[in-house]
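[09:14] KT: can someone run the structure on this one? pasting the chain below
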Amino acid sequence: MKKKARKLSDNIKEADRVVLGDGEDCIFSTDTNISGINNNILVVGGSGSGKTVSIAESFLLESYNRNIITTVTKRRIVNKYIPLLEKRGYNVWDLDFVHPENGNVGYDPLDFIKSYQDIVFIAKSIVTANKKKENTGGDPYWDEAATSLFSAIISYVLMRKENPNFSDVLEMLDKLSFEEEYSELKTNYDSKFDRLEKINPFNFATVNWRSFRRLPIRTASCVFSTLNTSISFVFTPELRKMFKMESKISFEKMAREKRALFVTTSPVNPSLNSFINMFYAHIFKELFEIGERESTGVLPVPIHFLADDFATGCPVPLFDQYISIFREKGISVTILVQSESQLSAIYGNDKSTTIINNCDTYVYMGSNDLETAKNIAMRAGIMTEDCLNMKLGNQIIFRRGVKPIFCKRYNIFENEIYKGLKDCPQEVLDTTDCFVQERKSFISELKNSIKMCKLDDIPDDSMEYERISFLKEEDLGLDSVYKNLFEEDTDDF
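[09:31] RB: done, structure tokens below
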């Protein structure tokens, strides 16, 4: 039976619906007080089964009130749905990790640091972002030492730079050099951290820096190499541009205003996945803390994450723990994967089982994976062979507390709102011309980065004195001595 599409002008006050298949019995409310279950949805289907068009796009069509964060790999989806969501009163953010200049907002981890734990969280997330490390079985000491060094650099920039961004952190790290002198490690930043130590020997930056300075030269080289490798792997030149964008994401606005966020990722660039998944871990952490500050313990506006190709790249840190308590904070997620085995390969058997068990709705759209088919057959009470040979377009919906629903996938092409949407309004160029233009632009940028200039033309980018946020001047009994120390520190990074 066809469902009449809602009009854009309708003032809908009830919770948004979720359309998972064709028919009235495949349309559900997202009001947990009505359903009694959480809104987490796991969608499993092989390539070409219709996960994106039938589930992801129908989710966007049915979004009127909830705040949404959507991960996409196809820009056409962003361009198609931004006008629709804006008509419904959404303020739309477009965060493009592949080509930041195509988006309207950037993300800078420094904007959300408000405690020492936040500094360590960001430093550790970046140092351990490379998934290849999980299979090396290396000594964790190197990651821990690299995290300590990175924490020292981050905290120093926050102390000394006015309105810093993450590019300042990376620039300081890029310029770090050291050598052995009289059996001691000497660096080009010793004078900077010595000035901090004169003010307070136990400040956070100095304590972490001191642990690096005391290392033997060979050990220090290994620690620096560990950190530098992580930085080079995660922060491509394209990504570094994002930190200098004027408009930045605000998690507070995401939690309180009517917002939609599109996150564009690359299906073929693994280095981006590391930073993007750290970004998601950061979002979850911040939203949980915002919810905790509310008197009800719940976010002011419910937020739903739509994660297409969730099991590609590397795992979102602590996701198996976050999903267990999403509901109590007003958060939910729709996860699209090709098979349960794909999820297990990324998160491991135990964590993937936790993720699956915390999704009260499971949509199976067919897969060639034998283990997935066995699990579905057991759930649905049918033969494994029937799961493997399920016709394209058929699916099974599992909802906690009810019997499986055997149905057809949702035909979005009959939706009147969908018919009115326009594909990418951008001018369509020949693919060969696009490649040539993109390559010429990149080669030009590469050449410009090494153009020679006169020394006198290089601007003095020295840091001006800034009151250290982690220290209270009055508590330390400092006055003009404090300022004089930093007035001397006018050298660049």
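[09:33] KT: thanks! Confidence is low (pLDDT under 50) at residues 1-12, 425-431, 452-483.
[09:34] RB: yep, looked fine to me
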